[in-house]
Amino acid sequence: MNKLWSTGAITLSAAIMLSGCSGLAEEGTGAEGKQQEAQSEGKEIVLRLWGGDDFLKGEESPGQRMVKEYNVKNKGKVRIEAKYMPWAEYHTAIQAAATSNELPDVFVTPQNTDVQTVVAQGWALPYDGLVSDNWKKQFAQGSFQEGVNVIDGKTYSWPVTGPALTSILYYNKDVLKNAGLDPDKPPTTWEELRSMARTVTEKGKGDVYGLVFSGGESATASGITKIVDGLAAGLNKEEVGDGSSRFNYKTGMYAFNSKASLDSFEFLNQLKTDGSILPSSYTMKLAEATVLFGQAKAAFFIEGRARMWIIKRDTPEANFGLAAVPTPDGSKPGYTFTRASGTGYLISANTKHPKEVGEFIENGFASPLFYEKYLNRGVALTPIESINSNKSLYPYPEFGQFVQLHKELLHERPNYAVKNPQTAKVIVELGALSQPKIKPSYGEILQAALTGAQKDWTGALRAYNDKANKGLDDAINKLKSGGSDVSRNDFTFPNWNPDQDYLDADYR
After folding, report:
1. What pLDDT, on the 0 to 100 scale, is given for residue 14?
2. pLDDT in tens, 132-152
3. What is the CB-side half-sphere exposure of residue 382 using CA atoms within 13 A?
4. Contact indicator for 235, 327 with CB cutoff of 8 Å
C-alpha cells in the first residue's frame, strides 16, 4: 500500500499552495455545504471515501462489503460513498479536488508521497479526539510512530496492512506438470529457475513461457524492478528494495548500483537471452500479466503479496503455489517491513463531519468489520494480530503457504523516523526516500536496459546512485542550515542484523 506521484507532484503542490492561501472551504458552499445543510435538517450524512487500493474494487471486494454493512447499520444517520479509482485516475481526481477545496472526507496518500508530506501542507486532520484509545490498542506494538504516521504527537493514519512481503515466487503447477517437471518442487536456486524456465519455454512451443512480468507499468510499479529487488534480497539482506528505491540501512547509503543489484539484473537479462520471457511482458500491464499467469501461459511470476488474492479473484481456476524467490545457493532470501506506515488513509481537513468520520474509521474501515473480510479474501495479513491468527478465516490452502512465508522471510527493519523524527522533514524535501525528482528513474533505467535502449546500464545506475546520495546530503544540509537537528547518521544503523527484528531496545 507504499508515495507524491512524480507526474503530479508539481500540480498538487501548486494546488495546495493556492488553496492554502484562502484557507479551508467556506461553510455553506459546494458539496460540503450541502452536507452541512442536510445535517441541520436531520437528513442522512454522506461521507466520501476515495482510494486506489484493489480492496475497494468491485461490489464483492472486502472494502465495499464493509461499507455496505456499515451503511446498513447506520441507515438514516450516516452513509459512506466509497469510490475506487485506478491510481492514474485517482491522482488526477485528487489534484482537482485539492484545487477546488473539495477533498473527500477520507482519502489515501497518492503514490510517491507520504503522510508527512500531506500533513505538512495542512490537508489532514489528526485522529486524536475522533477515535478512542482502545481503537489504537488493537493494533500491534509499533504501529504508530512519531515522524511516520504520528506528526508532532498527533496521529494521522494507521497501518492499513500488516507485515507484507514485497517479493514472492508464484509458480503455476499445471505449467510445470505439462512441461514434465515436478509441480510440487519449485526452484530454489537461480540455476534451477533458469533451467526450469528454459524447459517450460521449449515445451510451450511459442504459447507458454518460463516467466511473465509487467514491464509496461510505470517505473515505480514495473515488474522489472520487482524482480531485481526480489532476486537481490538473496544476495544482500541489508539492502532494502521497494520497486522504486534501494537503500542499505546498515551503511546509510543508496544501493542502486550495488553488486546485488547488478548481478540480479544480469540474471534477468540471461532469462531474456534464453528466450524464456513471455514476449509481451515488456509492454504488459500488471492486470494482464496476472491473468496470463493464472491462465497457465507462464510458469513463474515474481510479485508482491497482493498477487495471490488477485490471481484467485481474476482466474479462480488457476492451480498455483507460492515459494521464496530463488537465491544463487538455495538459501532463504530476507525481506523487511516497518509496522508504522508512511502511507495510508487520512481525514480531510475540509470535512464538515469529523465526528462521524472518526466513528466510521473506528467502527468500520479500521475495525474487525473490515479486517476479517480483508483476511478472508486473502488480501494480506492485517495489522491486528488476533485476526491474523484466526485460521478459520483463511480462505484457501494457498493462504497457509502465504502466512508461513511471511513468518520465515520477514523481519522488522530500522526506521529513521523513529530514531529521529526530524528526518520527516528530509523526506518531505526529497518527496520520498526514492527521490522521484531524479530522472530517468531507477525503474526507467532498468526498463530501458532490458529492452536494449540503454546500453551502458551499469554507468547509468552508478550515476543515478551518485545523484541519490548527493540529493540526500543536500537535503540534510539544507535543513541543518535552517536549524533542524538532523544528520546522515540518522539514516545509518550499524547494529542492524537483517535476520532479526529491529526493536525499541536497538534504537537505544
Report:
1. 41
2. 999 999 998 889 998 889 999
3. 27
4. yes
Give the span between the Cα atoms of 208 and 179, in whole angstroms. 10
Distance CA 171, CA 293 (A): 9
pLDDT for position 41: 56
Q: Cell match 488480501: residue?
A: 379
Question: At residue 47, what are phi and psi to the nearest 5 degrees?
Answer: -110, 135
Helix (H) and strand (E) counts for the chain?
Answer: 21, 16
Contacts of 26 (CB under 8 A, 6+ apart): 33
pLDDT per residue as tens digits for the range 223-256: 999 999 999 999 999 999 987 789 999 999 999 9
Do 109 and 8 contact (CB within 8 A), yes or no?
no
- Given the C-alpha cell 529491529, which residue does it identify? 502
Could you tell me if 322 and 170 are in contact, meaning their C-beta atoms sit under 8 angstroms apart?
yes
Query: The C-alpha cell of 481 is what?
Result: 542550515
Alpha-carbon gap, residue 382 to 388, rounded angstroms: 6
Q: What is the pLDDT of residue 220?
A: 65
The residue ranges of the chain whose pLDDT is under 50 are 1-40
Which pTM does this prediction carry?
A: 0.84
β-bridge pairing 239-241 and 335-337: unpaired
Q: Are 212 and 289 in contact (CB under 8 A)?
A: yes
What is the rounded distance in angstroms from the CA atom of residue 94 to the CA atom of residue 103?
7
Question: Hey, is 413 helix, strand or coil?
Answer: coil
The type of residue at 293 is F
Query: In Å, how far are 252, 268, 336 from 248, measured between CA atoms?
Result: 6, 22, 12
Own/partner long-range contacts of 451-460 (Cβ < 8 Å, ≥24 apart)? 451/215, 451/282, 457/265, 458/257, 458/262
pLDDT given at position 1: 37
Taking the C-alpha atoms of residue 282 and residue 212, their distance in angstroms, rounded to an integer, is 9
- Residue that is written with C-alpha cell 541543518 in the block: 480
Three cell numbers, residue 309: 488474492
The identity of residue 229, as a single letter, is: D
C-alpha 196: how far from chain center: 30
In terms of Cβ atoms closer than 10 Å to its own Cβ (0-12, 13-18, 19+), residue 482 is: exposed
Note the Cα 213 to chain centre separation in Å.
Answer: 17
Partners of 298 in the beta sheet?
Answer: 209
Contact status, residue 31 vs residue 100, Cβ threshold 8 Å: no
Predicted pLDDT at 231? 97
Convert 369-394 to b/e letters by CB count within 10 Å (16 or more is b): bbbbbbbbbbbbbbbbeebbeeeebb
248 close to 493: Cβ distance less than 8 angstroms: no
Q: Left, alpha or beta for 387 (phi > 0: left; psi -120 to 50: alpha)?
A: alpha
